[in-house]
C-alpha cells in the first residue's frame, strides 16, 4: 500500500511535467496543448451527438443526416477550415522560425553533449574560458539561453519539459534549442530517446536562478578544486590520484585531467550523482564507486572492489567536499 501510494504521488510531481511550465517556450506548448485538447473534445462531443441522433433519432433526423449537405459542410469544409486555422495558430503561438534574443544581444550559449549515459555541460565565460560540469544545467531567469545540443556517440534526445519541447541530439551535428526560464527553481529533464543499457538512468536537473546568483555560481564553478582541509580528505585525494581515477575524471587544480567521464571539480555541490540516479551524499558516492554496475547497469565506469571500507569512506569524503 505504501509503495503504491509513493508511486502515485511521484507521478503527480510537477518537477518534470509539460503541464507545469516554468519557461517561456513550455508555456506556449502548454497553451497549444489545451487549445487542441479542448477543441478536439468539442468536436468529439459533436460527433457523438450526431452518432446518437443517427442511431436513436427519428426518421426525419436520420434523413437529414443522410443528405449531401452534411457531407459537404461537416465532412469536407469543416475539417479543412479547422485544420488550416489550427496549423496557422500553431505556427503563431510557437513562433515558428522566430529567433529569441534580448535587446539585440547574443544569447548566453551552453554546450550540452549526450554521453553514455550522462550529460556533459560546458559554459564559456566572458573571458572565453570553458567551464565544464555534468548532469546539471544552471540558467539565469529572464534571459534567453541557447543550448547547443550534440552527442559523442549515439542518438540522444534532450527533454526538459518544464522549459521547452524535446530535441534530438544527432552524431556529427549541432542542434540548437533556445530556452527562457521565467521563475527560479529546480526542475528535472531526461533523455527521451532510447540510447542503450542505462538509458532509464540518464536524467539531469535544471537550476533556474536570478542573474546575480547565476553569475556568482559560474564564477565559483570556474575556480579550481579546494585543497583538503584535514587528514581524511588528504587521504581521499591521494587515493583518487593514486588509483587512476584521474585517467577518466578531471579535478581542476590537481593532476587529474581525464575527459572520458564527468568533470568532478565541484561534484559535491551538485544535486545528484550519476545523472540523477542517486542523491549526492558521501554514502551514495561510496556505494556507487563499489557497486556502480549494480546501481546503473552497463555504465562505462568499472567497479572498484579493491577499496576497503576505510578507503571508500576517505575517498567519498574527499569527493563530497569538492564544492
Number of strands: 12
Tell me about the largest β-sheet.
5 strands, mixed
Percentage of residues assigned to helices: 25-40%
- Give the overall form: elongated
Beta fraction of the residues? 15-25%
Give me the Rg, rounded.
Answer: 26 Å
Number of helices: 8
Helix and strand composition category: alpha+beta
What would you say this structure looks like, in words?
This protein is α+β, with helices and mostly antiparallel strands and 323 residues long. The strands form three sheets. A five-stranded mixed sheet has the order 3-2-1-5-8. The protein has a five-stranded mixed sheet with strand order 4-10-9-6-7, covered by helices on one side. The protein has a two-stranded antiparallel sheet with strand order 11-12. α2 packs antiparallel against α4 and α7 crosses α8. It starts with a helix and ends with a helix. The relative contact order is 0.11.
Walk me through the topology:
Layout lengths: L1 H10 L12 H33 L2 H7 L2 H26 L14 E8 L2 E7 L5 E5 L1 E5 L4 E7 L4 E4 L7 E3 L5 E5 L5 E7 L11 E7 L1 H12 L8 H12 L29 E2 L4 E2 L2 H14 L13 H13 L2
Parallel strand pairs: 1-5, 4-10
Antiparallel strand pairs: 1-2, 2-3, 5-8, 6-7, 6-9, 9-10, 11-12
Helix pairs in contact: 2-4, 6-8, 7-8
Descriptive keywords:
single chain, 323 residues, alpha+beta, five-stranded mixed sheet, 8 helices, 39% helix, elongated, disordered N terminus
Amino acid at each position: 500500500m505504501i509503495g503504491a501510494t509513493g508511486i502515485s504521488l511521484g507521478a503527480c510531481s510537477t518537477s518534470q511535467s509539460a503541464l507545469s511550465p516554468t519557461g517561456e517556450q513550455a508555456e506556449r506548448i502548454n497553451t497549444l496543448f489545451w487549445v487542441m485538447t479542448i477543441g478536439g473534445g468539442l468536436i468529439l462531443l459533436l460527433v457523438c451527438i450526431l452518432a446518437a441522433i443517427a442511431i436513436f433519432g427519428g426518421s426525419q433526423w436520420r434523413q437529414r443526416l443522410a443528405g449531401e449537405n452534411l457531407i459537404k459542410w461537416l465532412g469536407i469544409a469543416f475539417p479543412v477550415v479547422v485544420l488550416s486555422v489550427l496549423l496557422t495558430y500553431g505556427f503563431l503561438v510557437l513562433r515558428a522560425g522566430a529567433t529569441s534574443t534580448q535587446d539585440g544581444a547574443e544569447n548566453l550559449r551552453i554546450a550540452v553533449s549526450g554521453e553514455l549515459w550522462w550529460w556533459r555541460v560546458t559554459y564559456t565565460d566572458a573571458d572565453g574560458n570553458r567551464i565544464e560540469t555534468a548532469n546539471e544545467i544552471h540558467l539565469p531567469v529572464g534571459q534567453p539561453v541557447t543550448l547547443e545540443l550534440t552527442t559523442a556517440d549515439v542518438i540522444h534526445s534532450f527533454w526538459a519539459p518544464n522549459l521547452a519541447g524535446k530535441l534530438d541530439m544527432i552524431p556529427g551535428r549541432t542542434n540548437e534549442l533556445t530556452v527562457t526560464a521565467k521563475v527560479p527553481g529546480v526542475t528535472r529533464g531526461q533523455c527521451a530517446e532510447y540510447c542503450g543499457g542505462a538509458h532509464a538512468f540518464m536524467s539531469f536537473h535544471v537550476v533556474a536562478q536570478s542573474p546575480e546568483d547565476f553569475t556568482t555560481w559560474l564564477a565559483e564553478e570556474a575556480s579550481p578544486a579546494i585543497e583538503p582541509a584535514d587528514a581524511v580528505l588528504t587521504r581521499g585525494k591521494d587515493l583518487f590520484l593514486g588509483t587512476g581515477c584521474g585517467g577518466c575524471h578531471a579535478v581542476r587544480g590537481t593532476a587529474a585531467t581525464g575527459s572520458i567521464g564527468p568533470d568532478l571539480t565541484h561534484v559535491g555541490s551538485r544535486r545528484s550523482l550519476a545523472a540523477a540516479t542517486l542523491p549526492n551524499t558521501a554514502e551514495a558516492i561510496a556505494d556507487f564507486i563499489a557497486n556502480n554496475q549494480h546501481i546503473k547497469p552497463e555504465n562505462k565506469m568499472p567497479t572498484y572492489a579493491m577499496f576497503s571500507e576505510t578507503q571508500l569512506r576517505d575517498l567519498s569524503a574527499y569527493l563530497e567536499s569538492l564544492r
